[in-house]
Amino acid sequence: MTFRPALPQETTTLVGRRAEVGAVRRALQRGRLVTLTGVAGVGKTRVAIRAARLTRRAFADGVVFVSLSGLTSAESLEHALAQAMGIHELLSHSGVRLLAGHLRPRRTLLVLDGCEHLPEEVSALAQALLAAAPGLHMLLTSRQVLRAPGEHTVEVRPMSVPCAGASLAEVAATESYALLVERTADPSFRLTEQNTALVSGLCRRLEGVPLAIELAAVRARAMPLEEILRTMGGQPGGSVMEAAVGWSHDLCGPEERLLWRRLAVFAGPFDLAAAEAVCSGEGLAEEEVYPALAALVDRSVVITERDEGRVAYRMLGGVRQFALARMSAGELGELRRRHREHYLAMAVRLGCEQNSVSRLATWSTARGEWPNFRAAIESYAAAEGQVDNCARMLVGLWFLWLYAGMSREGRSYLERFLATSGIEGFLRLAALMTLTHIRVGQGDLEAARLSLVEADDLVAALEGADEPWEHPGSRYLEIVRGMYHFVMGELDTAEQGLRRALKTMTGSRSVAAAEGIVTLGLVHVAQLRFDEAVDVLRRARRLCAEQREDVIGAWADLILALALRGRGEYAEAMRLATSAVRAHARMRTNHATAFAVEVVGWLATDLDEHTRAAMLLSATGGLWKIEVSAFFGSRQLAREHSACEERLRAALGPHYDRAAAAGKAMSAAEVVACALTLCHGSSRQEKGHGQALLTPRETDVARLVADGLTNRAISQRLVIATRTVDTHVENILKKLGFAGRSQIAAWVIKERGRS
């Protein structure tokens, strides 16, 4: 039950490759571990993405795509997989055990791109995951075979090329020619008897390697074929890919070559500001960076990525490796220094109060910079005399750790740093408070208690020092302590501490103040002091609105929904709770989404939406299991969950188990869709109109879906084509406004109960 990134978008047409894509699909039917091999630039990633897209219907829990570019260790590999699958909150188990436990009940296709960087680590991980998760299939791309047990290999060979002396028709029938024409994008180009030999010679010279052909096609837009062949003729020996990349490099101007080399320092996508900050300097003025970058994009050396209005740039692995191989140790060291300093400044800036834009949007963008943040953290950790800067970066990314779904990574880095760095003073206190907050949020209360004790000792030492003591961190520490006492069930202690901290922050518009007010509201809800809770939480919402603090604001909405539920104001409570579901799902933070869906489930129970409530409360179990402890370890919240479950069992009787099973089978997207449906009250299908919307055949299909049959099994039962069943299921989903099969099953169960 995760929020998975979609497969990368195919921004250009896939030319040819039908045989290779078919071979991959057949291999996935025969075995659970398939590796695509081939030389650099041959198109392994494109073939894998197309095969995964065509087979995604076979995997009920979806396809997960992970690029391994820039990863350097088994731990970073586990972190990358956990992040892609939405597992961010657990650290008490090993990464492999966590991933295996998450995948065990699911039918998932995991695509790992670029495994040649970590062949032994990927092989070991694949064996462990496949042994633990019988529904898992893995599709890998690598320049070398992993030689793992049960591995099926598909070689992605270069495209077909015309032989010497080939006729016009023979040249036109080859894949390499088709790709050259497609990427040249020149409508006036025609294959004629006069240029057939030139085209044939160029395709043979490039040996059918797609990336080499694409680089040549860029030149063919402005250079005659004769000139292209002439300039390529002088290339030194080595692989055709190296020759093609080297040829493109030689055709670049001096500024473009310099920027190409310097851009290799980026471990992932980067924006123009980063390129200007890191790559300008000796030989390349800041104002020259964009023209050179645009030229590299035009030459297909750099590719662009657009996401939510943001333009980012990225270098392909082979092109980046070409540049890294041509850098001296001194040049690379200087670039890494500039790179980490740029991302430190970004982390510090992001970590400060920002009121001009939505924090959710800001940190959604920042999460996309994670490969570069990770590289900068590791660079600081490895550099001598950079302990303070490493601490500043880890603390500056606090929002990424706490609210942007990356607490697993944050906890790992903070624990390792605090254990080995010897950092002291205020920076250590800030790191400890961030770590404590993470541990409380994960429900790891014993670990949180230990870091609170250490923080208290540090505060005492700082207060006893000669320097004056006036640091806002001590007040934030009290707010974190209040969260800890709430989860422990020590409500009076939590309230007293929070009030003391907030009193010293009177008039403050900081995030810490908003967090403290929201936590105090939650304490009041637990104390059944609902009127006080409503007053406190409305104050928190006003503060968040003024500061455009939409993430903490979503938490304020959620806790206010609980307070209004306590007062019996269900309609407004449901509106606020579903708003919180939407915000937390967008942030892709599992524990926050789980809690928001949980509250919607409680409200649905109150409103007699019994079937959906049973589905939601059962579904949240999958999200909570990702964490150390459900409900952040709070026994009071867990008791409320159990009380609602008992009410639902009594109301649904024998239908409860089916509804709960349907909930457990839901994907995270389906859970969120089911929760959001409730914000409009009873839907058409809940009023019994759904049956009238379906044709008799669609009704038959819906009933068989509820019985757990696959589309293929349904086609055999009804003696119709599988594609026809696919169409019926899509029509049912559209007519009833559902997101997945499990919701169809729940609806059928409810209709059966009525009849």
TrEMBL record:
Which CDD domains does the entry link to? LuxR_C_like
* InterPro entries reported in the protein's UniProt record: AAA_22, HTH_77, P-loop_NTPase, Sig_transdc_resp-reg_C-effctor, TPR-like_helical_dom_sf, Tscrpt_reg_LuxR_C, WH-like_DNA-bd_sf
PROSITE patterns tied to this protein: HTH_LUXR_1, HTH_LUXR_2
SMART domains per the record?
HTH_LUXR
Q: Where is the HTH luxR-type domain?
A: 687-752
Q: What is this protein called?
A: LuxR C-terminal-related transcriptional regulator
